[in-house]
Amino acid sequence: MNYRINQILLLTGKNLTRQIRLVESHFGKDIDWGNDEERVKLASDPSTPNEMLNRLHKDHHEGVRKAVAGNPNASPDILKNLYFEHPKEVESNASTSLYKLEDPNFLKNKVAEIPNTKEGTSHKLERAKESNDQLELHHLYHDNHPDLKHKNLIASRLINNVNTHPETLHHIAMDSTPQRHHAELYALSDSKRDIKDKTISLIGKKTKLAHVLSNLVLHTNASGDTIHEIAKKGGVHIKYNAAFNKKTKPETLEMIYHDTKKAGRPIHYQMSINPNTPKHILNASHKELIKITQDPSKKDFHEMAKTTINTIKNHPNYNK
User: Fold this and answer.
1) Is the distance from CB of 95 to CB of 108 less than 8 angstroms?
2) Where are the domains of the chain?
3) 34-55 per-position pLDDT tens digit
């Protein structure tokens, strides 16, 4: 159920915390608290309770997270979590000065808690898999370890950790390209020879990269922009997974549908269950599925097509 924040504010009066709990208890914590502009406004408002800021500081939209970083009502834990992504806003936050008066090592402690690169790889991999500290996870990926294979192993653990921050996932996505690996390996190589062979041995051609990116687009913290960048350059399997994620934008889903259709492997089921699928894509998919059910040569796919058709008909964006 979609709730616009201005509607909620009309109902709340002064007790916004109580109203938040009432609305979420009825509609669930995944409720839409407004569009991007409305959530930025809420995240910037000093009267917004910390309970709501705690939700908004994990928002998929960077502008919302940035607004929370500058909100003087943000708790110390929230500011610590946002520090690596928006250090300028956190440092200039009026509350940060107060927190530093109470604890001169505020923010510095978070960095000091991260062990140095001499720590064993196995321990780091375990922390990358299990830790719920977003700043720690970010530093684990950016620990300047000289071994590119080590960085790939850390990335593979981070994309399976539900606590990994959207910005960290974006960095992994931008790094996980054959061109980037080739360039980094060249910079680390002494002989500058056999770079291609070494690249293949480290990243397994494109297969390991595809595995990383296929899992990354399914991550609940992956932003719509990150998913779009990966899906735009990824293969069919990556596009399939991207279409499952509820963070995937309508324009990305449209691109995926046309790209996979052009490749002769159109996506229908994922489109039928993703709440962001545009109505014209649903209508186009519906027509394609009708053709399949009427084609005797595709008899093996008739039942699957009929099931997907029914799912499309129940989609809120479907235009009958």
Assistant:
1) no
2) 5-112, 115-216
3) 677 888 888 999 888 887 888 8
